[in-house]
Amino acid sequence: MGRKVLLDKAHIEGIRYYDVYRKNGGYAAVEKALKMAPGDVVEEVKKSGLRGRGGAGFPTGMKWSFLAKPEGVPRYLVCNADESEPGTFKDRYLMEFLPHLLIEGLIVASWALGSNRTYIYIRGEYAWIVDILEQAIAEANQAGFLGKNILGTGFDCQIYVQRGAGAYICGEETALIESLEGKRGNPRIKPPFPAIKGLYDCPTVVNNVETLAAVVPIMNLGGEEYAKIGVGKSTGTKLISACGNINKPGVYEIDMTQSVEEFIFSDEYCGGIANGKRLKACIPGGSSVPILPANLLLKTAKGEQRMMTYESLADGGFPTGSMMGSGGFIVLDEDQCVVRHTLSLARFYRHESCGQCSPCREGTGWMEKILTKLEYGKGQMSDIDLLWDIQRKIEGNTICPLGDAAAWPVAAAIRHFRDEFEWHVTHPEEAQVRNFGLAHYADPLEVAVG
Amino acid sequence: MSEEKKLFKVTIDNITVDVEPGTTILMAARKIGGDVVPPAMCFYSKLQGSGGKCRTCLVRVAAGSTADPRPMPKLVASCRTTVMDGMVVENITNPAVLEARKGVVEFLLLNHPLDCPVCDQAGECDLQDLSYEHGSQGTRYEFKRRTFERIDIGPYIQLHMTRCILCYRCVYTANQVAGNRDHGVLDRGDHAQIATYVEKALDSNMIGNVIDVCPVGALTDRTFRFKNRVWFTKPVDAHRNCSCCSGKVRLWMRGDDVLRVTARKDQWGEVEEWICNECRFEKKKVSDWVIEGNTKLDRHSVINAGHYTNVVKPKETFKDVMKGRDPKLLMDIHEVSQVNTVDLNVLPGPATAATFNGNPNATGTNVTDVKQGTGRNLAGTDTTNAH
């Protein structure tokens, strides 16, 4: 049983409301933090080793200490709640059931960074969560944890919720800032980074919902105590949103001591593959990260057990590894077709590309067209090489990471499942009537299920 | 005077140059000149915030600076990356850069129609030059290209989105030079389009400049469209007293007719001074202008059969830089296509149809002797065209 520090109170009836949350030890972190100097709070987060939960895994304390602090210029904290990655739905759970946890984390972080105006940029589709958050903010205001002169410290802070209009690209921090300013959500060219020039050209920190919520247990436990949870540089707990062909899809909090095998097959977490099928492949960190076939998923290339940590999931780099990403754990069983799966991802990225820089704008559409051709039995062998060449020319050549995110899934699918692509070329009729892939990728470890 | 500013030393393709802090790699390369300059389709030094979008100017930074000589992990857009002291940049000397650039050209041409012969921009098109220099021979794209209807925005400008490469230059121009926001980008991804909101005509007096900044044939001059091919017209510098702009323009003449008026462009294809709509669209008579003399044609132009003045020749080190390979220069295009064999620069006056039909010495009858470069005001002296 892993340790829980974020969702440990999620089961309490009415925890969504201030009174219940407060009764169960809520807002203790604010009371503690506001007695400390802002710099000490940053130090505490640094000590905790907390890494950004939005995907890149950049150390949060470092990010906070990079924030420029020029005189007479406001600083902003922005909470990135534009959770649009296919397969990731952890922030939704957190905001829907524990809104005060996020508000509390935001107040602590605003104090640490000196932000008097803090924004939650929320995905437009999460319309009902906006109401939940606004109610929580109103309750916190009433209780004196927000507004003017919080707890008599003279610190003013107000939180505003801003709804996005349903663009995936606005989850990229600079596009989010543009959108928040009321402009078209095009990513900015970096440098300058938001820590120097962000919202309204002022120093800005953009953090994921889960990262900011994790600040609360860090304050309650102390940075060093928090760092003891987890393994090595993967400290603390991580929310994993598991979905796909598993028995128990949902959001799980892990303390990163679990192995991937345990996470998929134990009844505490995913509960094994649904319908007695076998495991074929898995995307461990949201749609943008490389897909891994079963053999590489459970064991690294070196033959070690693969663990649910940042380091272990990335072990072997892209040739044989993947990434923790945002924790969208998508499991594919033996009946799933990797070509069709890759096509649906490519279609998503084509639709969500902002169209600002040419490799991503044109390349994503091209990849989708070729994958459609392959999937519907009209492809040629040369198309597979062409696809490989296109993704290689997109990756790393774009303004923002969306280009990489579009290229990696295609690259990994061809790298690990090339003969399934070739099968689509050699068996065009069968590929159209039967939507399975090649079952021989499934379950090389022969984990008995059913 | 303030104390002398410390200059940064940058090495681009083994050529070192001193530039001021805050300069971008691209501008440093332009200071060197020649073919170490990365091509730029979206960057425009006179438009704030432009650049970084087309990715044709990608270069590799082999060493970040003297203080931190680590290479940068990815290729960077040279138009938006500022130099550091001791930076080492690889442009045409790095095969990975050329390969990436080839990829970008392919992406840019993916949805761009390959019908230069019927395009009005042909001959002065940045994308045409770019694909000649950096592209591959054929296309690997076998699907339908996106197409749009042509839209007339106002009485002077036509927008043909089919040809657009979404460089955003016109958007910045409309914002910064023409000063209104009727013009922007709608939709996203590969179906994004430049649009005037609800097809509104752009009525700013400076909006004609979007034609000059457009690197392709997406925005064209309705008063000139299909009147002539640019390589048959002769550029002449001229000026007039204008109340709202500098009045310094370039006339594109054939015979005694002024077919088109544009702003003057420098060797990087950027306008020197913005001009107003009145100068650009209304003044189509020789008598409206004071002729200054022949335009000096530079590397950016394919209109004059290789008779360039002002060509920035590659430096001595160039052969070493290219490791023995011959440079592929735009001026060599005439070996491929004989567009025009008439040497317009030595003609005493503007060319006429006869000039191109076997009588290379035929010129217009009543135009100043531009060859001497003296420049004379034609207003009043021209009895045939004045009124």
UniProtKB/TrEMBL annotation, chain A:
Its cofactor is [4Fe-4S] cluster; FMN. The keyword Endoplasmic reticulum does not apply. The keyword tRNA processing does not apply. Pfam families: Complex1_51K (PF01512), NADH_4Fe-4S (PF10589). Keywords: 4Fe-4S, Flavoprotein, FMN, Iron, Iron-sulfur, Metal-binding, NAD, Quinone, Translocase. PROSITE patterns: COMPLEX1_51K_1 (PS00644), COMPLEX1_51K_2 (PS00645). Its EC number is 7.1.1.-. GO terms for molecular function: 4 iron, 4 sulfur cluster binding; FMN binding; metal ion binding; NAD binding; NADH dehydrogenase (ubiquinone) activity; quinone binding. Residues 339-384 form the NADH-ubiquinone oxidoreductase 51kDa subunit iron-sulphur binding domain. It catalyses: a quinone + NADH + 5 H(+)(in) = a quinol + NAD(+) + 4 H(+)(out). SMART domains: NADH_4Fe-4S. NDH-1 shuttles electrons from NADH, via FMN and iron-sulfur (Fe-S) centers, to quinones in the respiratory chain. Belongs to the complex I 51 kDa subunit family. This is NADH-quinone oxidoreductase subunit F.
TrEMBL record, chain B:
Residues 355-387 are annotated as: Disordered. Keywords: 2Fe-2S, 4Fe-4S, Iron, Iron-sulfur, Membrane, Metal-binding, NAD, Translocase. Residues 96-135 form the 4Fe-4S His(Cys)3-ligated-type domain. Residues 8-95 form the 2Fe-2S ferredoxin-type domain. SUPFAM superfamilies: 2Fe-2S ferredoxin-like, 4Fe-4S ferredoxins. Its cofactor is [2Fe-2S] cluster; [4Fe-4S] cluster. GO terms for cellular component: membrane. Belongs to the complex I 75 kDa subunit family. This is NADH dehydrogenase subunit G. The lineage of its organism: Bacteria, Pseudomonadati, Bacteroidota, Chitinophagia, Chitinophagales.
